[in-house]
Amino acid sequence: MITDLLARQAAERPDAPFVVTLEREHSYAEIYSAARRFATRLASEGVGQGDHVGLLAGNGAAFVVAWMGIGLRGAVAVTLNNQLIADGLRYSVDQCDARVLVVDRDWEDSRAGQLDARQAALPRLLIEGDAAWLQSLQALDEAEPAEVPASAPCTIMYTSGTTGLPKGVVNCHTAYLATGRATVKALRLTPADRVLVFLPLFHVNPQMYGVMSVLTAGAALLVLPRFSASSFFDDAIRLRATGCTFVGTVLSILVARHEGQRRDHGLRFFFGGGAPKAVWQAVEERFGIPVHEAYGMTEVGGWTTANTVDDHRFGSCGKPRPDLELRIVDADDRPVQPGQPGEIVVRPRDPDTILMGYYKKPEQMLESCRNLWFHSGDLGTLDEDGYMHYLGRMKELIRKSGEMISPVEIETALRRMHAVTDCAVVAVPDPVTGDEIKAVIVTQGDIDPAAVQAFLADKLARFMLPRYIEFAAAIPKTETEKIQRNKLQYLDARVHDLKLGRAVVAP
Asked: What's residue 399's pLDDT?
C-alpha cells in the first residue's frame, strides 16, 4: 500500500518535512498521525475496505491527509476535479459510487448546491482550511492501518477528454509504488530534495510524479494552490525548491513572462510533458534548469517514457521505463519502422503497473486494449536509438491537403510575436483542403490579423500558416493547463478570414 511508505518515513524520519505550504511545514509524523485520525473519522461514517470516497478540494496539506487517510482505511480515493459544475459534477459523483464526500469550504460554498437531492444526502466531511481541519482531527484516536493487497484499487481519476463522458481510471497501489520508484531513479531524488507542485492534486501528475516520488525518497512536497507565472520563481526561492513538475503550456508561459535570464533559484529539474523544443532550450539557457521531458497518461503508469539524469536526448520524450514496453504501430497494430509515425501503444512488463480498468466501462477498456496493448490515441515515432518523439493527439493533428501539422509547432512560433501573451491553434473543416488552420490569440494591445501571418511567414512552411485569426480574452484550458481545443473549432463573425480579408460570414 502507498500508505506503508508514509508509515515508514514517519517511523524513520518523524521530524523531516513532508508537506510544505506557503503557511507552514508539516512533518512526516504529523501527516501520518492526522491521516490515521481521519481514517477513524471515515470509519464513524461507515466507510469500510473497498468503499469509494469522493475528494473535492483544492491544494493543501488537508488534501494529502484526506487521501492518505482514505488509504489507511482500505478505501478507494476518488479524486474529483473540484472545478466541475452542473451535469459534469453530477455525472462524476454518481458514476463513481462515492459513499462519502470530502470537500473544502470553497467547494461547499460554490458548488454543493448543484448536487441533486440524492447526492446532497451523502455525508460530507468539510475541510475548513489546513490549520482548522488538522486541529479538528486531534480529538480522534489514531486508527490501526487497514491491510489490503498492493494489487487492490487505490484511486479513481477521471480523464478530461475533449469528447464524450469522462472515464474513471482505476489504478492500484502497485502502479503508484512503481511510478514512485521510477521517478526517484530517473531524477536521482534524495531526502534533501524539495519537489514543487502547483497542478491540482486530483491530477495524476502531482500524485504520481510528486507525492509518490517524495514518499519514496523521503523528500519534501512543496504545495502551491495554483500556478502563477509572475510569482513562480519567488515562491520557488521562498520554499527552497530543488525541482518542479509541469504539464501543458506552463513552461511556455514562464518563458514568455520572464524575459532574459533568471538563475537566482535552486531548481535543478523540471519534470513533465508538453515542452516544445524552443521552450525547452530557452528554459535551460535562460533559467539554467534542465528539462526532463516525459510522456505519459493516467492510464499507463503516470509517465511511460522520460529523459532521465543518466539518459536523455534533446527534443525527445526519452526511453520507456524498464517496467513498461512501448511500440509505435500502424492502423493494423503492426510495428512501424524507426522514424515512421504511428500510434503509441503500451503494455506492462511487470504486473499491475498500468490501469486496472475504466470504472464500470468494461467495453471501453476492451476497446483500448486491442491485441493486448493499451492504445493511447497519441501519435509518435521511435528513433534508431529507441527515444520516443511525441507528435500529438491523433484527433488534434491538423490534416491539411495531405500534410500532417502539429498545432504545438505553430503555437510555439506565435508566442514569440511581440504582444502575444497566449494562443491556441486548431483545425476547422474545409471542403478543399480537408482541414484549415485557425489561430486564437490573446494579446496585450491591438494587432492587425495580417501581421500575424507576416510574422510567421519566415518561421513556418507556407502550408502551416493560419488562414483564420481570432482575438480572445483568454484561451480555454483545463486545470492542468491543457488547451480545450474543441471549444475553439468554430467559424463565425468573431473570426477573421485572411484569404478573404474580412470577418467570417456565419452560414
From this structure: 82
Q: What is the DSSP letter of 63?
A: H
pLDDT 10s digits, 403-434: 778 888 899 889 989 899 999 999 999 888 88
pLDDT in tens, 139-187: 999 999 999 999 999 999 998 644 457 899 999 999 999 999 999 999 9
Strands 403-405 and 398-400, bridge-based pairing: antiparallel
Give the residue from 459, 468, 463 showing the smallest Cα distance to 427.
468
Burial class (CB in 10 A: 0-12, 13-18, 19+), 158: buried
| Cα–Cα dist 32/358, whole Å | 30
Tell how strand 17-20 and strand 25-27 pair up: antiparallel
CATH topology classification for 293-394: Luciferase; domain 3 (2.30.38)
Distance CA 358, CA 364 (A): 7
* Domain residue ranges of the chain, discontinuous segments joined by +: 1-228, 245-258+271-291, 293-394, 398-503
Q: What is the 3-state secondary structure (H, E, C) of 27-44?
A: EHHHHHHHHHHHHHHHHH
Q: What is the per-residue pLDDT across 314-335, written as a single tens digit (0 to 9) for each?
A: 999 999 999 999 999 999 999 9
Class of domain 1-228: alpha beta
Per-residue pLDDT reduced to its tens digit, 242-291: 999 998 778 988 998 898 999 999 999 999 998 989 899 999 999 999 99
pLDDT of residue 506: 60
pLDDT of residue 164: 58
Question: What is the distance between the alpha carbons of residues 272 and 259, in angstroms, rounded to a whole number?
Answer: 22
3-state SS class at 305: strand
- Architecture of the domain spanning 398-503: 2-Layer Sandwich (3.30)
503 Cβ contact list (under 8 Å, min separation 6): 493, 494, 495, 496, 497
Cα(308)–Cα(271) distance, integer angstroms: 9
Per residue in 192-202, pLDDT tens? 999 999 999 99
Alpha helix positions (H), 111-226: 117-120, 130-137, 173-187, 204, 212-217
Give, in degrees to the nearest 5, the angle at Cα 13 between 29 and 302: 80
Candidates 295, 289, 341, 349; CA nearest to 324 is 349
